[in-house]
Amino acid sequence: MTHINRRHFLKAAGAAAAAGMVSGCAQSQQSTHHSSRQHGKSVIGLIAPKMDVVRVAFIGVGQRGYGHVKRMSYIEGAEIVAICDTHSEVLERSAKFLSDSGKSKPALYGNNDLAYQDMLAREDIDIVIISTPWKWHAPMAIDTMNSGKHAFVEVPLALTVEEMWQIVDTAERTQKNCMMMENVNYGRDELMVLNMVRQGIFGELLHGEAAYIHELRWQMKEVEHKTGSWRTEWHTRRDGNLYPTHGLGPISHYMNINRGDRFDYLTSMSSPALGRAAYAQREFSADHQRNKLNYICGDMNTTMIKTVKGRSIMVQHDTTTPRPYSRHNLIQGTNGVFAGFPNRIALESGGRGSFHDWDEDMSYWYDKYDHPLWIKMGKEAERNGGHGGMDFLMFWRMIYCLRNGEPLDQDVYDGAAWSVISPLSAQSVANRSESVSIPDFTRGQWQTAAPFGIVGA
Ligand SMILES: NC(=O)c1ccc[n+]([C@@H]2O[C@H](COP(=O)([O-])OP(=O)(O)OC[C@H]3O[C@@H](n4cnc5c(N)ncnc54)[C@H](O)[C@@H]3O)[C@@H](O)[C@H]2O)c1
């Protein structure tokens, strides 16, 4: 092996280990299929007994979780009873916000990493909102369900194939909801496109494009606390798509993934990893810890997913290069295409011009196809903020479904299928882009599960 090849191999082996491969590719391929695992009844369409008031607890109230506390406090029928965070400053900040807004004081936890388990032992909690660093998502979600509560977990749901299965198994055994909170599915544009897809405007769906392209190098300056203090590490551990769900969630709902179609396999390729080391060199002193890290995650990762029905989806991840934000949000059907960032439409029939030209005037399309949920709640959502209203709308729907005895808009199988793209992309990258099977977390139920009703209002 030449020096370069050996270096590449070691890098790839490291990435494979980070991707959750225990002892080589063959075993890993096999372990994506767990048809023989012990499991309970499917939780597709799970309806929890109606709750009059939803009693809410939080684990993690840092940058994201604090916004969640605020949003939840605005929602009728939700009551915040307890909060856990190991960083006392942010814990107190949330408690102060609630007391300043005249709410009753929640019980506070957080004197050690497992203090959340003491909180979970309480009997006055119905749901737990988990907004902690990624490595905590799986243990916290599993402990939440085992304690008899419903889990709502930030993105991604978990980090490895094995963790996804453990979460699915626990949801089925306990018959509890475990929803990964993909807020982008509640964006105005994404809801409108879902509405249009369901009305057949684009014809038969063929292809989608999704992305998380968001320059976040600046987070490397967060060293003690905040997102960059733990997220930066992932650029040294995994070469693949670190954050696949924001773009992929909406495309999956357009395509009825897990409800009539499902992800079959993927292949993935990464560009060189140059931007983070260069940024560290430019922004930090030579002896700064950010200059001692080995950044292995390719600046741009491109993954292609094939569905069982033959559709293709491109998913990109790039939080490093200097370029404008995009989630692509492109859906192509036999009659035409919608593309996001910026929004544009081209249709063969039913459009306002030739499909050779983009129609970029969205006001016409909003007037015609705005989603009923947006028409009903959009103004209030925009007032309450959070990524243009999508965060508030998601919380509003969660509480609405729980109070009205309706199934949630996203279930544990969605969270697992969308999130597993991360470890599997790393596995493919480490093996010259070889295709990797994507587990069927529904264990065959995708064939008979009815599509979501278009998210109700
Ligand atoms: N959906 C979105 O648009 C969106 C946006 C930002 C972040 N996120 C997700 O939210 C999550 C949190 O990200 P963030 O930016 O808020 O990070 P953050 O570091 O600001 O917050 C994480 C919090 O978790 C706390 N914590 C860590 N370990 C804990 C433990 N064992 N027990 C209790 N608390 C613990 C930390 O003290 C911190 O306050 C991540 O999963 C991230 O991917 C999602």
In short:
38% of the residues lie in helices and 16% in strands. By secondary structure, the chain is an alpha/beta fold. The chain has 2 domains: 47-180, Rossmann fold; 185-372 and 410-447, Dihydrodipicolinate Reductase, domain 2 (2-Layer Sandwich).
How would you describe what is shown here?
The chain is an alpha/beta fold and 457 residues long. The chain has 2 domains: 47-180, NAD(P)-binding Rossmann-like Domain (Rossmann fold, 3-Layer(aba) Sandwich), CATH 3.40.50.720; 185-372 and 410-447, Dihydrodipicolinate Reductase, domain 2 (2-Layer Sandwich). It is built from 16 helices and 14 strands. The strands form 2 sheets. It has an 8-stranded mixed β-sheet with strand order 13-12-11-7-10-9-8-14. Strands 3-2-1-4-5-6 form a 6-stranded parallel β-sheet, sandwiched between helices. β9 and β10 (312-318) form a beta hairpin. Mean pLDDT is 92; it is low at 1-32. It binds nicotinamide-adenine-dinucleotide. Nicotinamide-adenine-dinucleotide is lined by residues 59-60, 62-65, 84-87, 90, 110, 113, 116, 131-134, 136, 154-155, 183, 226-227. One of its GO terms (molecular function) is hydrolase activity, acting on glycosyl bonds. Belongs to the Gfo/Idh/MocA family. Glycosyl hydrolase 109 subfamily. Keywords: Glycosidase, Hydrolase, NAD, Signal. This is Alpha-N-acetylgalactosaminidase.
